[in-house]
Amino acid sequence: MWVATMGEKTIKTTNLPDAENVVVSKQYIGGSLFKSQNGTIWTPSQFQDLAFKLRKAEFIESGTTTF
Is 60 a member of any domain? Predict the structure, then answer.
């Protein structure tokens, strides 16, 4: 996970053509990212969003399992 900041270049976009020139220009989903230094006081960040890469697993239903 990392933070994407509006107006800055993206990272980890090697699979996109022209990846070095991709700039974050809009929010993926509306809302604010809230950050805290101590877990008590939360501050909204209007120009940052949480960025992540989601991977999924595929499981085979038939077969045997060995431990």
Answer: no
